[in-house]
Design brief:
The structure holds two protein chains of two kinds. Chain A is an alpha+beta fold. In chain A, 54% of the residues lie in helices and 15% in strands. In chain A, the strands form two sheets. A six-stranded mixed β-barrel of chain A has the order 2-3-9-4-8-7. Chain A starts with a helix and ends with a helix. By secondary structure, chain B is α/β, with parallel strands linked by helices. Chain B has helices at 4-9, 18-23, 31-39, 43-46, 94-101, 124-134, 150-161, 164-169, 171-184, 200-212, 230-247, 258-262; strands at 50-63, 66-79, 83-87, 109-114, 117-118, 135-138, 218-222, 250-254, 266-271, 274-277. Chain A binds chain B through residues 1-2, 4-6, 9-10, 13, 439-440, 442-451, 453, 545-547, 550, and chain B through 96, 99, 102, 104-105, 124-125, 128-133, 135, 137, 139, 143-148, 152, 156-157, 159-164, 167-168, 210.
Chain lengths: 553, 279
Amino acid sequence: MYKLLLCWRYLKTRWIALASIVSVTLGVATLIVVNSVMDGFTSQMQDRMHGILSDLVVETRGTNGISEPNWYIERIRARIGNSVEGVTTVVTLPAMMTFHHNGAAHTQQINLIGIDQKTYASVSDFSKYLIHPDNQSQLDFNLKQSGYAPDREALQPSGWEYRNRVEQLKKERLSQLEQYRELQEKIAVEQRKQLSNQLQDSHFGTPNLGANPESSTGSMIKIESEKKAESEPSTIEAMLAGPSIQPIPSGEGRGRMFDASKEQRTGIVLGIGIGSVRGRDLAGKVKDYFFIRPGDDVSVAFPNAGTPPRAIDEMFTVVDFYESKMSEYDATFAFVPIEALQRARGMIDPLSKVGAVTSIQIKLKKGSDLSAARDALRDEFPPTESYVQVNSWRDTQGPLLAAVQMETTILNVLLFMIIAVAGFGILATFFMIVVEKTRDIGVLKSLGAPGTGIASIFLGYGVLLGSVGSGAGVVCGLLFVWKINEIARVLEWFTGREVFDPTVYYFDSIPTIIHPFTIVWVSIGAVLIAIMASVLPSIRAARMHPVEALRYE
Amino acid sequence: MNSTTPAKMLTKPSTPAVGPYRVVRPELELDSIESEIVKSGLPESVGCQSIVVARDVTKSYRRSKTIVPVLKGVDFSAERGKITAIIGQSGSGKSTLLHLLGTLDKPDSGEIHFDGQRTDNLPARKRDAFRNTQLGMIFQFYHLLPELTLLENIIAPAMIGQSIFSYFRNRSAIIQRAKGLAEMVGLSHRLHHKPCELSGGEMQRTAIARALVTDPQLLLADEPTGNLDQESGQSILQLMRNLNRDTGLTIVMVTHDENIAQQCDALVRLKGGKLEPLK
């Protein structure tokens, strides 16, 4: 009983010892904060990586693809059917996309992905990342009237609203140009009349352009300006923030006029990084700027399925953006309906009407063994038999995940070193306290307290200090994690530097995940270190000779 | 003689708090000692036998490389129910002898007997328990625990002697007894003060109360008045004499004050590592 009473009293009266455990508190708090932020980052990153990648991919390197996907799917289902939740087929190929911005055409490289919109959502979280709320539940590649991310000002207006407005502007400009041309023509006719009248009235009686340099150059200029006026519509039209009118390519539109204000072309979903840039205005506020909006038409050139491949050109209407927040994906991926791509490339077998695909994506049921399924499929499709590869999403992003894992481990080791350093602080403080309490130890021994009892006073004191320290650390750490974004803001204000740059990370706030298990082991570890640090001073106190302790001045 | 009446309360047969406290330590080997006392329990017969005996005790200290002999074959005995004083110059080994009697230290040679049982070769655990139950000690510098209040200081030996559970079972009896002792030493109004708020005399009274809380047979006092003024010292001495008279408590006291020593029942002088009886 005296042990508890004494260590409680020591805790209450020895504030210097509490100072020594501030380092424990800080270490524990730092460990909790770092772990939860790292976990938050990792899980966000995994979510993003995994969001677009299905669990398993059976893919061929050739752009012409697998011509008998159903046979493969049957074999996959036969082999690992129990753990398969969804299967979809995909055509992936590199492509060049051209869009118009401020009248100039820009071409950039993209990864064109043909997806089956009915089954694609069953293998990945793809639809979750679409901007339009309707598409998030079911993507249909149709342009929506409006409602593309209403909270993004830079994206307004878009959809049919935007398309119609652009068409309206084009029509107005065209009719203005028409009037202008008519006026020009009238003037020209008038001038010609005057000219011929002058010529008739001249002394020579016959028209001779060469004889009258002044008038001839004048008419030349007029003719030139006429020509210019004729060619002007296309330039002015191109200056509109919309695509130029181009001839409708092969397909259903052939033979009739395409009315852009009422019709759309095949839908395409662009990665948001393709169509926009994120930057800061002069005031330092983060702003998005969109070159392309839902409702714009773009043209995409890609190889057909022939050997050797030839480039073919197809028009698409942007129907939505895709924002996974993985910049690698967002800046290159563009999704189109798989049949449109197969038809355009000539991948459909004329007899069986089956389209070839470049990869088969598989989603496994929750809790199934990813690598076991992958190995089974690798065994099913050995490279000696078929030209396909089987990869899991972890294989694809393996190095990155491993790097993050390693980083977390090393950080944990380093931070535990901090707590270990704190342990030495406790050791030193405890030795001081034992020396200070020498006479009390002697008194307790003279009152009949055994050495183990004395030792347990100081051990208990160590446990109490460690618990208080790690408890305070847990509380501080959790508070820090809870208010981490506010703290980041204060730090930004204080240092003038952005702690967390949203243009780099695509995060609006710092992601955190708190694993209760982490907290438990961190606090247990800290208490253990405090106990270990108090063992030596306790033994010293227990071994103290009562007479010498009583004599100690 | 104000303190006579409360002191009488604490005589063994009339104090109910003593009973349960003694019973809760049946595991203690020292029971044998106790039962002997109980058997021969009449105060008349107690008075004529030695309670603590030292036989041919030697003790030396090592100061760096030289060995300093302090006690060179000391024979000492203290009679039950008497106050024995040990006097001598400082450094003559008075305190050392007291520590040996109190099993705080081991003699180099010779034997210490307490109530017929040898105590100097007991294992550490048993010596601890022996000190706790059979001995009370007071010191020149009081040696109260500064973190504890007066009351807590008094009950500290009782807490040390018992496990948490038995302490809580007997808590009210122990506190009752501690309060009785505090009243006896005249400090019942300062029970919740810390030692630093007390005067020297009050601290020594507290130390006496603490020494008595486990109802020991022997009180070892190491210069109990050495740090006090004449008046406080005299009142402490008076308190001890009253205790001795009313409860039959045996006291062995070390002092260098001849005046105080003369008031004791027996008197020995330590000189040159040997003991010479004076009274």
